[in-house]
Amino acid sequence: MNTTHDTAAAAPDAPVRFDTRIAVLLREDLETWQRLNVTAFLVSGLGSQFPEVIGEPYEDADAVGYLPMFRQPVLVFEGAKETLANAHARVLSRALPRALFTSDLFTTGNDRDNRAAVRAVSTTGLDLVGLAVYGPKNAVDKVLKGARMHP
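Below the sequence we write its predicted structure tokens.
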């Protein structure tokens, strides 16, 4: 999959455009701390599975190095419980890369228990509070139909 349309090759100052999208959908009734925590957890898996989404390391003027980050924006959306359920069904039908966060994960304290909590529930019974998706813009936009940009 071609993941970028690199306009910088033609003109060094031209913006780089991406034909992919990284998006997070959060349930609208989450507390602020939950929104932040869920978003961080959801996007954490993308770089290991899709190294092309990671840019170059950063360095400040004093030559202090910093970790690389995503090379493109992460769009954050919100919606009702039904919006998440619909988006989940669409992301599965399109077989797009995805990550999920269920309400059960707020009660666990480690990765092993997190995976066990998800494994204990059927796909249709998952109480989703967050969903991340990565893929072609058009496909991701269709998955997120009905969601709105997070304020």
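Helices lie at 32-43, 46-49, 81-93, 111-119, 137-143.
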